[in-house]
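Worked Example 4.2. Consider the chain below.
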Amino acid sequence: MDFVTSLNELSVRPSSHSNCCSFVRIFSQLSNDEAQALLSALDNPNVTSSGIARVLSDRGFRMTHVTVARHRRRGQGNGCICP
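Applying the procedure from the previous section yields the following structure tokens:
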């Protein structure tokens, strides 16, 4: 298959990505207190993305500091897809 055909096929195949970011899936598995603590940490500029990723990974969630940083930029052009 040539380059142009391969790229054109991408637009007709259903995406394997949902409009749901990893954090939505994580929040659905947390208690209300845990979810509020995570939201507070995400909104606190003194808490590093690496720190949040480490705590989430220790809890068993696959997370990188890059994903945390992107989610923190939600609503911006280079941010998370979630609203």
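The mean pLDDT is 86. The chain is about 55% helix and 0% strand. Compare this with Example 4.1 before moving on.
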